[in-house]
């Protein structure tokens, strides 16, 4: 590929180019010129020089502050995403399904990360053979194929290949109608472990008013079952209870529900039944979101006092606002302090406090915080003699915690039925966990 005139300085970026339907797949590394790391041409009917137009267009858009996820050159459309210093770009001359293309690109990132931990130039260079094999499996003649890393890892490994005698046999998961689970799985003890995990995202202002409130939930499975079992999961879903005439029961209204591919969507749409043949081992069955107003589970009040501009004292009161039968574990309260503070002194009614100067915060750790309890922490710092009105303590106080056997939304697993043709007995285990989210 000739020296591109648009690159005037040394860039550290890589371009991963693939054409729709998808026609070909490139991994490129940019220095003073474009160097192709890996190329896989799926259909052979695309001009291989089209990729040369992508970076000039992107750089011009960036200069003009007109960055968009789709750029065009002539009749060619570039759909791109960025991961670290990688650009993943899909090219098409057709009216392609953009959502499908982007979904495929993000899925490819996930597959490579699960293989190589990090997706970057070094991991590509160090795993050429594995990358080529994965590129052949995830795409066939321009159409996406198997993109489940668990299935791919059954026959594409990072160990050396052994010479096999006789004709090679395709993996059962490739020819099986249930591509996410192999046949012939056997266990001595059959069990299913289910975790219902809810993350609470809250943003509260200084007056105590809730500015933002959201619950993000996931249901995770660890399946240790023989054969090809069918599972049926029942939740206290509001829509289901309205259909069956049980509106007085306690229910939750799930929003933005996303299922694993194993769930039969047609049954869920018809009668809200969650029926599926589960993958073996660990997987995420579903995720959901609730836009509902909830009170802070751990309420924080803080008072800051400055004395003669030479020292500051911060008083923090933490109160748990959930029932006494529940307990928050590993509570961490991060209280912002001025960046120029020094000589820290702490006093707590429970737990321990420490100064984290690189983050300009006091970290108050409480191993066990029962419901209905209230604790205090005092922090004393020295300040430089120079007066500053920049109150960095206006940054929000962050609270991290985890409450087992408790959900904020009230979601409940009503039943988990396990049906297998051999009729073995299996034990289902359900655990509920509430934890802090990204904003508190």
From TrEMBL:
<dbReference type="InterPro" id="IPR036168">
    <property type="entry name" value="AP2_Mu_C_sf"/>
</dbReference>
<feature type="transmembrane region" description="Helical">
    <location>
        <begin position="20"/>
        <end position="39"/>
    </location>
</feature>
<protein>
    <submittedName>
        <fullName>Adaptor related protein complex 1 subunit mu 3</fullName>
    </submittedName>
</protein>
<dbReference type="GO" id="GO:0005802">
    <property type="term" value="C:trans-Golgi network"/>
</dbReference>
<keyword id="KW-0812">Transmembrane</keyword>
<dbReference type="GO" id="GO:0030665">
    <property type="term" value="C:clathrin-coated vesicle membrane"/>
</dbReference>
<dbReference type="Pfam" id="PF01217">
    <property type="entry name" value="Clat_adaptor_s"/>
</dbReference>
<dbReference type="InterPro" id="IPR050431">
    <property type="entry name" value="Adaptor_comp_med_subunit"/>
</dbReference>
<dbReference type="InterPro" id="IPR028565">
    <property type="entry name" value="MHD"/>
</dbReference>
<dbReference type="GO" id="GO:0016192">
    <property type="term" value="P:vesicle-mediated transport"/>
</dbReference>
<dbReference type="InterPro" id="IPR018240">
    <property type="entry name" value="Clathrin_mu_CS"/>
</dbReference>
<keyword id="KW-1133">Transmembrane helix</keyword>
<comment type="similarity">
    <text>Belongs to the adaptor complexes medium subunit family.</text>
</comment>
<keyword id="KW-0813">Transport</keyword>
<keyword id="KW-0597">Phosphoprotein</keyword>
<keyword id="KW-0968">Cytoplasmic vesicle</keyword>
<dbReference type="InterPro" id="IPR011012">
    <property type="entry name" value="Longin-like_dom_sf"/>
</dbReference>
<comment type="function">
    <text>Subunit of clathrin-associated adaptor protein complex 1 that plays a role in protein sorting in the trans-Golgi network (TGN) and endosomes. The AP complexes mediate the recruitment of clathrin to membranes and the recognition of sorting signals within the cytosolic tails of transmembrane cargo molecules.</text>
</comment>
<dbReference type="InterPro" id="IPR022775">
    <property type="entry name" value="AP_mu_sigma_su"/>
</dbReference>
<dbReference type="GO" id="GO:0006886">
    <property type="term" value="P:intracellular protein transport"/>
</dbReference>
<dbReference type="Pfam" id="PF00928">
    <property type="entry name" value="Adap_comp_sub"/>
</dbReference>
<keyword id="KW-0472">Membrane</keyword>
<keyword id="KW-0653">Protein transport</keyword>
<dbReference type="InterPro" id="IPR001392">
    <property type="entry name" value="Clathrin_mu"/>
</dbReference>
<keyword id="KW-0333">Golgi apparatus</keyword>
<feature type="domain" description="MHD">
    <location>
        <begin position="189"/>
        <end position="440"/>
    </location>
</feature>
<dbReference type="GO" id="GO:0030131">
    <property type="term" value="C:clathrin adaptor complex"/>
</dbReference>
């Amino acid at each position: 590929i000739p020296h591109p005139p648009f690159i005037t300085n040394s860039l550290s970026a890589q371009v991963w180019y693939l054409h729709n339907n998808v026609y070909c797949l490139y991994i490129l590394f940019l220095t003073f010129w474009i160097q192709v790391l890996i190329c896989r041409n799926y259909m052979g009917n695309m001009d291989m020089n089209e990729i040369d137009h992508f970076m000039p267009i992107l750089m011009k858009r960036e200069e003009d502050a007109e960055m968009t996820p789709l750029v065009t050159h002539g009749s060619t459309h570039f759909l791109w995403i960025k991961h670290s210093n990688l650009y993943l770009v899909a090219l098409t001359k057709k009216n392609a399904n953009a959502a499908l293309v982007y979904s495929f690109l993000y899925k490819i990132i996930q597959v490579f990360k699960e293989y190589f931990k990090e997706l970057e130039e070094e991991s590509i260079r160090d795993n050429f053979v594995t990358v080529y094999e994965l590129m052949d499996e995830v795409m066939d003649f321009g159409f996406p194929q198997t993109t489940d890393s668990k299935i791919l890892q059954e026959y594409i490994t990072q160990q050396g290949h052994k010479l096999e005698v006789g004709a090679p046999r395709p993996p059962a998961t490739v020819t099986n109608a249930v591509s996410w689970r192999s046949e012939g799985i056997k266990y001595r003890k059959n069990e299913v472990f289910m975790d219902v995990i809810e993350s609470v995202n809250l943003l509260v202002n200084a007056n105590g008013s809730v500015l933002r409130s959201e619950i993000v939930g996931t249901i995770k499975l660890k399946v240790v079952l023989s054969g090809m079992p069918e599972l049926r999961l029942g939740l206290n879903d509001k829509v289901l209870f309205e259909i069956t005439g049980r509106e007085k029961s306690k229910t939750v209204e799930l929003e933005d529900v996303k299922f694993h591919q194993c769930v039969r969507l047609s049954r869920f749409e018809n009668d809200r039944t969650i029926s599926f043949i589960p993958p073996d081992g660990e997987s995420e069955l579903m995720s959901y979101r609730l836009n509902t107003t909830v009170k802070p589970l751990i309420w924080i009040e803080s008072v800051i006092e400055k004395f003669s501009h030479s020292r500051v004292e911060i008083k923090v009161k933490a109160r748990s606002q959930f029932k006494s039968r529940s307990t928050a574990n590993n509570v961490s309260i991060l209280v912002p302090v001025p960046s120029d503070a020094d000589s820290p002194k702490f006093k707590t009614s429970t737990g321990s406090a420490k100064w984290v100067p690189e983050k300009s915060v006091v970290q108050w750790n409480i191993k066990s915080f029962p419901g209905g309890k209230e604790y205090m922490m005092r922090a004393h710092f020295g300040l430089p003699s120079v007066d500053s009105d920049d109150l960095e303590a206006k940054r929000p106080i962050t609270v991290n915690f985890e409450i087992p056997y408790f959900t904020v939304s009230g979601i409940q697993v009503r039943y988990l039925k396990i049906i297998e043709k051999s009729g073995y007995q299996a034990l289902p285990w359900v655990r509920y966990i509430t934890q802090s989210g990204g904003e508190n």
